[in-house]
């Protein structure tokens, strides 16, 4: 593709700059690390399979070089991040603060009690102020539209730390965990048993691009977003993967390599707790659920976990990867930040995805 601009007289001027066509589906083209620099990370639907693999490769490379080899990598020296948190957090806050600092950068933790976000100052003005003082914004918010507004009005990359629609940085950690455990992602079957929430939406927007099949069990009335489902079905068709929906947890677990769930009552849904617990009766993941899964099945949960979602026998078993998954939140957010803010290319061999 050749870029051209129109000058003041209306004539077209060729800039002679070639750009690879970026695909967000399965027509994947390896674009290299530079293709991610300066981009927003609001949802994995905006990234091709090869670009998602680049995030994961960078995370694995940093984990190997820093954790295993003990290297000091000041890749974000002189960089700062504004961390806006409307919702409380353990993993997102710690992974971002410690990871950004470990790479030589400066994290700034901001709650709605610390700044004027949307109260004494518009989100638009806040985006402009933060753009002048920091290099990237990570925001954990209620409304996904607030992230989109920050991205539109600011001049620096915005990373989704969680919204009601998507949780992309969690899914990157899940994929790195599965890749480490199984050696490859392609061909795996994931079984989601729980609420049709932001975590499931993120799986649906990305799993097909990595060659993974997805079985989804939700109670009636708690299905994933209709628009997300429509796009996910199209992706699965394009990528040649299976996307299956049911209301039966055991049916969804059939042949699965990973059983995955999340909280049934998210922050902001506390008033619905009694109704939700009733609707999700029978959805607890147990060893009995795993009997219909593949012999090598594993378990994932993004935490914090409640016993009604998964019993102790599964949660603390050797099949459970939840604490490896939690640690990988740090390495994947580090990988994402390095890709978004620098031209870093991993030194290790690319993992088999």
Automatic annotation (TrEMBL):
EC assignment: the record states 2.1.3.3
Q: Name the major location.
A: mitochondrion
- Protein name, as recorded: ornithine carbamoyltransferase
Intracellular or extracellular location(s): Mitochondrion matrix
GO CC entries: mitochondrial matrix
Database matches in InterPro entries: Asp/Orn_carbamoyltranf_P-bd, Asp/Orn_carbamoylTrfase, Asp/Orn_carbamoylTrfase_sf, Asp_carbamoyltransf_Asp/Orn-bd, Orn/put_carbamltrans
Record's subunit section:
Homotrimer.
Top-level taxon in the UniProt lineage: Eukaryota
Q: Does the keyword Transit peptide apply?
A: yes
- Please state which protein family the record places this protein in: Belongs to the aspartate/ornithine carbamoyltransferase superfamily. OTCase family.
Does this UniProt record's set of keywords contain Transit peptide? yes
What GO biological process terms does the UniProt entry carry, in alphabetical order? citrulline biosynthetic process; L-arginine biosynthetic process via ornithine; urea cycle
UniProt keyword annotations, A-Z = Amino-acid biosynthesis, Arginine biosynthesis, Mitochondrion, Transferase, Transit peptide, Urea cycle
User: What sequence ranges are listed for the domain Aspartate/ornithine carbamoyltransferase Asp/Orn-binding?
Assistant: 187-338
Q: Which organism is it from?
A: Raja sp
Looking up Gene3D superfamilies in the UniProt record yields:
Aspartate/ornithine carbamoyltransferase
């Amino acid at each position: 593709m050749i870029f051209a601009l129109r000058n003041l007289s209306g004539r077209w001027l060729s800039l002679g700059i070639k750009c690879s066509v970026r695909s967000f589906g399965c027509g994947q083209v390896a674009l290299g690390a530079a293709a991610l620099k300066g981009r927003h990370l609001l949802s994995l639907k905006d990234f091709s399979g090869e670009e998602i693999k680049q995030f994961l490769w960078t995370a694995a490379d940093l984990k190997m070089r820093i954790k295993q080899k003990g290297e000091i990598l000041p890749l974000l020296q002189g960089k700062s991040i504004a961390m806006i948190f409307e919702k409380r957090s353990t993993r997102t806050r710690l992974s971002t603060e410690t990871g950004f600092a470990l790479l030589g950068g400066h994290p700034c933790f901001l709650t709605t009690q610390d700044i004027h976000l949307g109260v004494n100052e518009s989100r638009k003005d806040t985006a402009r102020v933060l753009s002048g003082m920091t290099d990237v914004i990570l925001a954990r918010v209620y409304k996904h539209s607030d992230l989109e507004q920050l991205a539109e009005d600011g001049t620096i990359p915005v990373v989704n730390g969680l919204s009601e629609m998507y949780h992309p940085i969690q899914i990157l950690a899940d994929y790195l965990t599965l890749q480490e455990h199984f050696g490859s992602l392609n061909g795996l079957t994931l079984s989601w048993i729980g609420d049709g929430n932001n975590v499931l939406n993120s799986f649906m927007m990305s799993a097909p691009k990595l060659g993974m099949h997805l079985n989804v069990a939700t109670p009636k009335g708690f299905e994933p977003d209709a628009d997300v489902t429509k796009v996910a079905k199209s992706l699965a068709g394009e990528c040649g993967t299976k996307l299956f929906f049911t209301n039966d947890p055991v049916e969804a677990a059939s042949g699965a390599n990973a059983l995955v769930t999340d909280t049934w009552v998210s922050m902001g849904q506390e008033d619905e707790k009694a109704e939700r617990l009733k609707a999700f009766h029978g959805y607890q993941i147990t060893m009995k659920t795993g009997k219909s899964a593949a012999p090598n099945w594993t378990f994932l949960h993004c935490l914090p976990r409640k016993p009604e979602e998964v019993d102790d026998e599964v949660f603390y078993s050797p099949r459970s990867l939840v604490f490896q998954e939690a640690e990988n939140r740090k390495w994947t957010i580090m990988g994402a930040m390095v890709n978004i803010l620098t031209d870093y290319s991993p030194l290790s061999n690319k993992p088999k995805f």
